[in-house]
Design brief:
Blueprint lengths: L3 E8 L3 E8 L14 E6 L2 E7 L6 H11 L5 E2 L15 E13 L2 E19 L2 E9 L4 E2 L6 E5 L4 E8 L3 E9 L23 E4 L18 H6 L4 E9 L2 E6 L2 E6 H14 L5 E7 L10 H11 L6 E2 L7 H4 L3 E5 L12 E2 L8 E5 L3 E5 L3 E2 L4 H18 L5 E4 L4 E2 L3 H18 L7 E4 L4 H8 L5
Parallel strand pairs: 1-12, 13-14, 13-26, 14-17, 17-19, 18-19, 19-20, 22-24, 23-25
Antiparallel strand pairs: 1-4, 2-6, 3-4, 5-8, 6-7, 7-8, 9-10, 10-11, 11-12, 14-15, 15-16, 21-22
Amino acid sequence: MADKNEVDIKTNSSLVIKSIAYVPNTMSAPSNTKPPTITRKSDTHWQVMLECDRKGSATHAEFFNTRCGGYYHEYTGKGWGFDSEPRELNFCFAVSITFTYKDGAANKEAEARVVYLAQGHYIQGIIPRNNWWIGGEQTVANGNGSPLLLAENTANTVAMTIDAGHSDFNLAFKYKTKDIVLPSWMSKIAGATSLAKISIPGTHDSCARFGGIWAETQKRALNEQFDDGIRFVDIRCRHVKDRFDIYHGSTDQKINFQQVMDLCLAFLNRNASETIVMSIKEESDPKDNTRTFAQTFMWYLQSNNCVDRWYLKDTMPAMDAMRGKIVLFRRFDEVGGPAVNGLKAQPWQENTTFSISNTVKMEIQDHWKTVLGFGLPEKWRDIKALLGAAKGTSNDSLYVNFCSAWSILTPKACADYVNPQLTDYFIANTAGRFGCVPMDFETADLNRLLIATNFP
């Protein structure tokens, strides 16, 4: 007869567990294992039980680590410690957890989208002990602080701290953002506010979803990123036969500039209060062209009769001047005249933090080459330094802080380290201007934490 393996999910009185439900087809366990039984004990105590023999397997551990995103997204209270990955697991599966929390006099709900539960084992002295793990790519963040479980609804991100024993997880309410509707969050920004004064979530290599682990930097398509609150995008164009195909390095991303522009304008047509800052850079080798990169860019705008939908001046815009438009953040050579100059992000320096002093002044962090070991802590140090500089000054410089990195480690491995650090940072720093923050593998809950700093 199979063992009955039980884990308790508990909260304090400020947080009610409304429901816990098994997510179908998320189990890695011995064959013929049935879905878990989930029992409500009280408003603040639920129990999850899986009937399954305890036989450690590296296969189940690999499944858990892959689905969760690695050790910065996993936590166990006993055993290896919360900054490690399990080597073997008896089983794992996912649940969704819905919480009710007090917001003033009202009760609100927030859901942790996919939370993996797993059971492992370790040796205490000479005695083997079982212990449970909790994890989730978009929901559990360790970073450099307490382990956190993030949940969201349409207007809030709620953070909860996690404590654990061998077979229980105890959650405590920590922080929630104010009401923020992600597709239209800029509607709350005053019209006279300078672009330089706004905290803006962005994506690096925004269309890079294809080509394998070394080329991919995002999971969500461009239109989905906009709905997640992203307003700074990084578009890399290969110039071929007087057209732009979107590339990451030498890898075709199966989308072209016409499609990118269509997605941007369609979003802005639905959300006239918003703007999109678009960094455009020439990528890979040009081929078979009869005009310059800049001329082809202008051809797209003119042939689509949408020049007026772009902000092409070389001065820092205020919010009302940008609404419903794409702001050109130009990383390519002159367009052809000051009327269509855009925000000139040149000369660009490689792999460092630097200043640009044109009509629009900029402070840029783009330290993207990392090495194993000290590389990622150094990357985070540089990100944090520019976040602090942006918050600590009131000048009209545009701060652009790339959180992406790549080298010995894949973009995903780097994001798995950096994004939890950002989560902790913006839970601790809830107000201020932090500039444009392009990330790899963006998530709506992290975006909302950054956006919330605009509305203290």
